[in-house]
Amino acid sequence: MSKINQAKSHAKPVEFSKNVFAVGSKDAERRFFDTLISLPKGTSYNSYLVKGTLKNALIDTVNPGFEDELIGKITPLLGDLKKLDFIIMNHAEPDHSNAIPKLLKLTKATLLASEKGAQMAEQYYKIPKERIRAVKNNETIALGGKTLRFIYAPWLHWPETMFTFLEEEKILFTCDFFGGHNSNETFDNEKTLTKEELIRDAKEYFAEIMMPFRAMCKIAFQKVKAFSPKIIAPSHGPIYTKPEVILEEYSKWVGGETKNKAIILYVSMWNSTEKMAQHLNDALKKEGIEVRTYNMLDLNLDELARDLIDTKTILLGSPTFLNSLHPLAMHYLNLVAQLK
Ligand code: FEO
Fold first, then answer.
1. CATH code: domain of residue 95
2. What CA–CA distance (Å, rounded) separates 204 from 306?
3. φ and ψ at 215, to 5 degrees?
4. Cβ-Cβ contacts under 8 Å for 176 (sequence gap 6 or more)
5. Residues 147 and 210 in one domain
6. Considering only CA atoms, which residue is closest to atom 1 of ligand 1?
C-alpha cells in the first residue's frame, strides 16, 4: 500500500472567525517533503471554508490521500455538498489542489484560479474548461456578507500563485507563503508552541521553498503589508492570529538582510580539511564574527538552509578527490546555489 493511501489525520474543523472554518488535515506521519526536506513534526494541508449568506467557497484543498476526510468535514458544515459554489485554487501543487477533481465531480462548484492557475488546472487535472473561471488580479466575488478579493502573487513558488483576502474580517489566505511544517498546532497562540519554535519552522520553510524566489517574495510582501491583515492563514502550519510577529521576521528574510555571520561547510578524508575548518572557525570567532561550522558528512539540511538566510559569507572546504572536489562538496555547492 502506498504512503498516500495510508493518510491519517485527526484534525477537526475549527471556526476561527464567524462562518470561516479551518477544514484541512494534519499529517503527523509524513517525514519528508520533496523527498528532501525533513519533517520532524509532520506537516498540515490547511484548507478553509468560507460561508456567506448567499454562497460558499472552499479555499485550497488537501494532499493526496486526505480527500475523503475533507469531504467528510465540509459536508455537515454546508448541510449538503452541493451547496459548495466555489473552489479557490491559490496554488496548483498537489498538496493543496489534489482534492479538486473529486470535489468538482461531487458538486456543481466553479473552480477559481489565476489565469495561469486555470491553465494548469485544465492541463494537470483535466478539469473541463466550463468548470473553471480565471479570476483577474484584484477581482472580487461576493458570498453575501463576505467578500473575497484575489491578489496575484506569482512565483511563490510556482508561476500561478495568488492570495485570497476576506475583506470584512481582513483574513489573508496565502497558501505556501508564511507556511511552516507543523502538524501539532492549528494557531500561533497555542501554549505548546513557543514564539521561537513558530519562527524557526517558518524560517526553515522560507529558506527551503521561498528563498530562491526572493525577488518575487519582496513584491508579494509589500502587497501583504498594504492589506494590513488581522489574520494570516497559510496552507501549512499554524494560522497567525498575531500577524505582526511573522511580518516582522519576513521583512528581514525577503529583504535579504544579512548578519556578520559565516558558514563553514567542510568534508574531510584524513582530518586535514577538518583541522583547517576548525582553525578558521576559531579565528573568525575571535574577530567577533558569528560562525556556524558544518561537517557535510552529517549536516542537517534544514538547519543549514535556515542559516543561509542571513549569512554574509560561506566558506567551503574540500579535499581533492579523484582530481576534483569531494562529491559531498559538489552536492552542497549545488544545493546552496539552488537555494540562492
Ligand atoms: Fe505546499 Fe507549493 O505546495
1. 3.60.15.10
2. 5
3. -60, -40
4. 91, 93, 96, 156, 157, 161, 205, 209, 210, 234, 235, 236
5. yes
6. 176
- What element of type H or E holds 245? helix 243-255
Its domain, for residue 187, covers: 3-254
> Are both 204 and 299 inside the same structural domain?
no
pLDDT tens digits for 189-229?
Answer: 999 999 999 999 999 999 999 999 999 999 999 999 999 99
The number of distinct structural domains making up the chain is 2
Centroid of ligand 1 to alpha carbon of 139 (angstroms): 23
Q: Which residues contact 275 (CB under 8 A, 6 or more apart)?
A: none
Pocket of ligand 1 (CB under 6 A): 91, 93, 95-96, 157, 176, 235-236
**What does the pLDDT look like over 155-164, one tens digit per residue?**
999 999 999 9
Q: Cis ω on the peptide bond leading into residue 157 (within 30° of 0)?
A: yes
pLDDT of 252 above 50: yes
Tell me, in angstroms, the distance from the centre of ligand 1 to residue 97's CA: 9
